[in-house]
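Support reply, case 0932

Customer input (verbatim):
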Amino acid sequence: MTWFRNLLTTSTIKSSIKSKTLINPYRKFIFTSLTHFSSESAATTTTETKSPYTPTYSGLEPTKPGEKPRVVVLGTGWAASRLMKGINTDIYDVVCVSPRNHMVFTPLLASTCVGTLEFRSVAEPIGRIQPAISKAPGSYFFLANCKGVDADNHMIHCETVTESLDTLNPWKFKVSYDKLVIASGAEASTFGIHGVKDHAIFLREVAHAQEIRRKLLLNLMLSDVPGITEDEKRRLLHCVVIGGGPTGVEFSGELSDFILKDVHERYAHVKDYIHVTLIEANEILSSFDVRLRDYATKQLTKSGVRLVRGIVKDVQPQKIILNDGTEVPYGLLVWSTGVGPSSFVKATEFQKSPGGRIGVDEWLRVPSVQDVYSIGDCCGFLESTGKPVLPALAQVAERQGKYLAHLLNKIGKNGGGRANSAKDMELGGPFVYRHLGSMATVGRYKALVDLRQSKDAKGVSIAGFSSWFIWRSAYLTRVVSWRNRFYVAVNWATTFVFGRDISRI
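Our regenerated output:
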């Protein structure tokens, strides 16, 4: 076996030589190539003398000469998604920072709560909207929240989202930018009412729709258990919706459809106990034409929805209390009363517009700092522009995203893509919003279409089955990808033929 030991010794020597001549240069190449994306924590992984190749920056460093300028986008809502779809990735690297990795097609979200549509039909992965963040070497998506903006140093501070997993600790990192677009959206307004966040479910995310569906089906099954009193059955099966805007009305319509078509057939023992109450402080669909509002009221009432005018004073675990002292028991409480500035927006030091949003000028720039823009529900025109704050609508956000993508592409083509390089550049025409109209479904194959430019303007307004057909056709064409359009069309056809899926998974 002497020959085998000699061979082993020779192999070891050769391996040692190779490791010195090949592996070390390879390591040097790797660290040299990736110095823009490194971690400070690596410096603490050894007690030996600090290597010259040890990373010293936690996150993405500023872009270097020869690299594409970097656009950092906060959010994956309507505005952010339309911006990323339109940005020219031959000019820019795109980095998206958001606590969710998909865009939600919010106009159809209410349909997922009762099984008309599946959840994946309204969720569009951000990597499909902008493939560069999955493929391009300088573009990324980070599942994180932005915790602060250092505009002087063109840098944001972020913290990863771990969804309360005990096995993971939030990781803090920094991202340098050449252009920053804040499109972080807004938060549901609670008006400071006690108990709303603890007991109500909002309807803004896919997770909210999943929770509504889970609780609705759970209450249906629990109410059928022997020994449950009639009063408890009525409470469990009382669905209360707060807010008479388009989302609240559409959800109430979908829910009444679900009750009439599916609950009455499959939960015959409790069908007489389930009912829906819609509570609104003023008039439902206040931005719509008066004739359309009256039509919606009649249709909802005919479908079994009880309309109550009142203001919520307090929300308790099993009942809400109105200002006049009326107590309303509930088994499911859905809160849909509009939106307001998020805690992140409130914490920023940027000048604010009326209502507390980030203030922008006519070109959607944050005027007090360089290279920062804001679009969507988190921004509003400053008073100095003389323009009103635009409503928090998907079509506003989408139009702003499209405009800003075109503007940034123009800036990049003219050599202004890098930080502080577009100060005196001619930007062209400012952003102008023209309202295309509003739509809402009220259930039972009925909908409203209001094509007026504003609340006080004259224009076309129609209601009924034809409006429902227009509503579905319009939203089907607005779904972002052909993949999801196919899902939506198939879901609608399946529901029409076989009814809704009422499995509790």
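We compared this against your earlier run and they match. Two observations from our side: The chain has two domains: 59-187+340-414, 201-337+436-498. Residues 1-35, 39-56 have pLDDT under 50 and may be disordered. Please reopen the case if you see a mismatch on your end.
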